[in-house]
Amino acid sequence: MALKLNPLVISCQKFSSLHLASAVNLRSPKLIMASTQSSSNGEQFLELLAREVADSNGFCEAKSLTLFLLLWLYQEIARDVENLKKSYNPPRKINVQVTHSMPPQKIEIFKSMEDWAEKNILVHLKPVEKSWQPQDFLPNSASEGFIEQVKELREQSKEIPDDYLVVLVGDMITEEALPTYQTMLNTADGVRDETGASPTSWAVWTRAWTAEENRHGDLLNKYLYLTGRVDMKQIEKTIQYLIGSGMDPLTENNPYLGFIYTSFQERATFISHGNTAKLAKEHGDMKLSQICRTIAADEKRHETAYTKIVEKLFEIDPDGTVLAFADMMRKNILMPAHLMYDGKDDNLFRNFSAVAHRLGVYTVNDYADILEFLVGRWNLEKLTGLSSEGRKSQDYVCGLAARIKRMDGKVQGMDKETPTIPFSWIFNRQVKL
């Protein structure tokens, strides 16, 4: 049976926000031309549609519904695209981005270090067959005792408090954004993996480092999933947002800045995972403590490799390296997950960091301690033969940790009310910052 449509008259006041009117000629040359142009003319097309509609007598007949739907659909698509862009750019500090700041002639320094990197950096990698894997610490899903193993894991995790879970989830999400970190390393001039499978020492290191780090997020993710204590969908959304947003560490495609940043960051994650291991033990979860200690050991090994690279740069180019160190510290070392977002909390990273600071997992004092450690590791106070700018940078970096600790002491001494907020990762339960 054929369905026959009766003519309808629909008041356009219902769609007043679109300023729709009655039927128009969809074959209008103006509309055809605008609609077939590139997307840059999309707004012009929308304006022409609205103008055609506005020229009518104020009512929409059934035959004009096609136009209404076209106009409405176009607006919805434009709105969706804009919302998508915003979702991957949550509110944040806007930095003026500088790119490719390393003078081209210094690329030769990194080319000359290829053989050195093979002998001194690649040795800090572990063969796959000798490496631990996430399955070594988790219930075996192929085992008949799998369900009992999961029950035991869940029993151990029962006493873990919510604030600890927030920090553990934040650490896990940071590890899961690994694609961003490999991308960042591969933007650095002179050391990037040019083909995706380059045999250079720098490229081999970046890929193998990524492969080793990849186990960290996998292990923590599966552990948290099995506990049943967290909202995995919200966590998974946060990971997707974070990878989509990227990171802005202010390293300017410059491997001097990049390797100083990674030296600092690897030590920061070593400290953070080490402290979560201690707290897990205090809360009676020995398996989780072992997991966090194992990840911390990896971070320590990677820290050794990156600090070795910078040590070599100080040997080859002390002035350029100390200038880069000072530059990185003036900017502040931003954590890799500083663009973290869960679709709800615009200040998610700041709030997660506040909880981590309160628990002593990663604090301002730790930041200062890392700086002191690197100054000693690279013998900055003993550097000689520097330019006047190099000496100023040397003085700045060598005295910075003490200034940070003094400032933190003043802040800690102030009376302030600690707010409590919900975290979507733990089903919106409230946690003190």
From TrEMBL:
Q: List the GO molecular function terms.
A: metal ion binding; stearoyl-[ACP] desaturase activity
Q: Which InterPro entries match?
A: FADS-2_CS (IPR005803), Fatty_acid_desaturase-2 (IPR005067), Ferritin-like_SF (IPR009078), RNR-like (IPR012348)
Q: Which domain of life is it from?
A: Eukaryota
Q: Which SUPFAM superfamilies match?
A: Ferritin-like
Q: Which Pfam families match?
A: FA_desaturase_2
Q: Which UniProt keywords apply?
A: Chloroplast, Fatty acid biosynthesis, Fatty acid metabolism, Iron, Lipid biosynthesis, Lipid metabolism, Metal-binding, Oxidoreductase, Plastid, Transit peptide
Q: Where in the cell is it found?
A: Plastid, Chloroplast
**What interactions and quaternary structure are annotated?**
Homodimer.
- Similarity comment: family membership: Belongs to the fatty acid desaturase type 2 family.
- Please describe what this protein does: Introduction of a cis double bond between carbons of the acyl chain.
Protein name, per record: Acyl-[acyl-carrier-protein] desaturase
The organism is Tetracentron sinense
